[in-house]
Write a structure and sequence with these properties.
This protein is of the alpha/beta class and 233 residues long. Helices cover 35% and strands 12% of the residues. The longest helix has 17 residues. The mean pLDDT is 91.
Amino acid sequence: LIDLAGGLKYYGEMGDNIVKPNLGMDYIATKGNIHDPNFKIGGNPEYAKTLLAQAKTACPDAYDRATNPAKGLKYYRPDTADNKKSAVIVEAALTKAGIVIETVYKPSGSYNANLTEYKSQTDFLASGWAPDWANASTVIPEMWGDGCCNYTKNEDTPEYAPFSAKIKKALVELDRKKQAKLWHELSQYGMDQYWYIRTVFSKDQLTWGSKIGGFQEWKIMSTPIYNDLYIKK
């Protein structure tokens, strides 16, 4: 998928955290996930089959739904040409592992506005996120906690209660170094649960014409500061 979108140089690379590296002290390289020796960027269907074999006993209902051709898992995605190209790759990879997946395309113009509704209808959905300022308080509580944009269903799991309690602790911690350490612990915990998969540290390239003045990049969001822009005479 990264190659399809332009490769490591232009698109980005696999991420090991939902907190991205340019948030500085709040980012930590987590363990496991993409650092697991069994992880291969091109896929590892044989290892995936061993995990499915374990799931057959550990969670038989989920196993049946994921592998039964009459059932299968659903993946909601925006209806775009690029998503339809990448879906071919995703579906082929999951099929090799023995997982049944159905991609369901939703109108791209209203996709993000309906994610809360879609969350209760599908097993997987796609979204993106950028922090509002340089603190993981704008990422972890929003995407994994009680904030605006948690689409994971993690609140239905027993692992959520201690996680949510630690988020509340981090939000009121005034010592910045202690707070960063709490974000590190929360990042590792969330990634260990695989509450988000296929995390990508993506790249953006911004260009502007010679008659645009006042351009400054807001690095956290990787966008221009729009209020400062003007047209040169």
